[in-house]
Amino acid sequence: MSDDVEVPQSHPRYESLLTRHRIEAGVDRGITSRQGLIAQGRGEAFDYLLGERTIDSADRAERAAAAYLLSADHAVISVNGNAAALVPGELVELAEVTGADLEVNLFNRTEERIEAIAEYLREHGASDVKGLTADGRIPGLDHERAKVDADGIGDADVVLVPLEDGDRAEALGEMGKTELVVDLNPRSRSAEVAAVPIVDNIIRAVPNVTEHARDLRGDAEAQRAAIEGFDADSARADAERTIREGDLE
Ligand code: ATP
Ligand code: MG
Q: Which of 65, 10, 30 is nearest to 183 (CA)?
C-alpha cells in the first residue's frame, strides 16, 4: 500500500479517508472513471448511516455469497474501476479461494481502462484476467454496455457483481444468472434484482466473503444451509431499517 496517503489510524474517519484516497489514486492511474468518484460518495453516505460496520444480515449474505461461489459450475467475479481501486488484492484472493474467474467489466468501457485494470489485478497476483475478448453479449443492452467474454460472464451460472449498474444487473438476471451484488443502497435496482444483496462496503464485504469461503470449502452440506437459510427480502429490509433507525455515533 505504498501509494496510500498518510492518515493516522486514530483518525475517526480513518477507513473513509483511506477509501477516498484509493478511489482518487484509481482515477489518477486510469483505473477508475470520474463517475466512480460520485458513486463512491453515494456509497459513503449509506455507509455512514449503517454505522460503517457489517450488520448481521450482511454477514449472512456474505456467507450465502461464498456458498454460491463455491457450489457454482462456473462462477465469475466482475471487476469494475471502483472495485479494482478499492480491493484489488482481496478480489484476487477471493477468486483463488473459490475457484472463480475474474473478469473486468465496465459500465463506461474503454480498452485503455480495461487494460489498466487487468494489469493492476495482475500486479496483485491474478494469473488470468478475462474481459479483454468481449466476444459475448448481454441481450437487451446497447452495444458497449452489453459486452462480456463469452467464456467468462457469458458462460457463468453465478456472478458476483460489486457495485453493478441497475440496467446491467437486471439484464444479467434475465439471462438466468444467479447474481451476488455488493451495494450499500438496499433500494438500488442492483440490490433488488440480486439473489444475494450484500448491503455492506466492498472493503469489508470482499474479505468477509473470502473468510466464509475458507470456512465452507469442501462442505456441501454447510454450503446448502448457508444458501437455504438466507432470505434476500428480509436482508434488504433489515439493512433499510438499520439505515433509517440506526443510532449515529
Ligand atoms: P441504479 O438504480 O442504476 O443501480 P444507482 O443509484 O445505484 O443506480 P450509481 O451511482 O451508479 O447509481 O451506483 C453506485 C452504487 O454503488 C450506489 O448504490 C452506492 O451506494 C454503491 N456503492 C458505492 N461505493 C460503494 C462501496 N465502496 N461499497 C459498496 N457499495 C458502494
Ligand atoms: Mg445501482
A: 65
What's the CA-to-centroid distance between 220 and ligand 2, angstroms?
32
- Does this model's pTM top 0.70? My answer is yes
Residue 14 vs residues 11, 38, 132, 138: alpha-carbon distances, Å: 5, 20, 35, 39
Q: What is the pLDDT of residue 208?
A: 98
* 238-244-248 Cα angle (round to 5): 110
Residue in the structure block whose three cell numbers are 483518525: 11
**How high is the pLDDT of residue 17?**
85
Nearest to 181 by CA among 47, 48, 83: 83
Q: Which ligand lies nearest the alpha carbon of 37?
A: 1
152 CB under 6 A from ligand 1? no
Residue with cell 439471462: 175
Q: What per-residue confidence (pLDDT) applies to 29?
A: 96
Q: Which three cell numbers stand for residue 219?
A: 462442505
**How many CB atoms lie under 10 A from the CB of residue 144?**
12
C-beta atoms surrounding 173 within 10 Å: 19
169, 179 Cβ separation under 8 angstroms: yes
Protein residue with its CA nearest to atom 3 in ligand 1 = 166
**pLDDT for residue 1:** 44
- Is 105 near ligand 1, meaning CB less than 6 Å away? no
Rounded to whole angstroms, the Cα distance separating 176 from 139 reads 12
| Mean pLDDT, contiguous 10-residue spans, the chain (249 residues) | 64 83 96 94 95 96 98 98 97 98 93 96 97 94 91 97 91 95 97 97 98 98 98 98 84
| 3-state DSSP percent of the chain in helix, strand and coil, to 5 | 55, 10, 35
Helix axes 56-71, 88-98, angle to 10 degrees: 50
Can you tell me the distance from the alpha carbon of 35 to that of 158, in angstroms, rounded to the nearest whole number?
A: 27
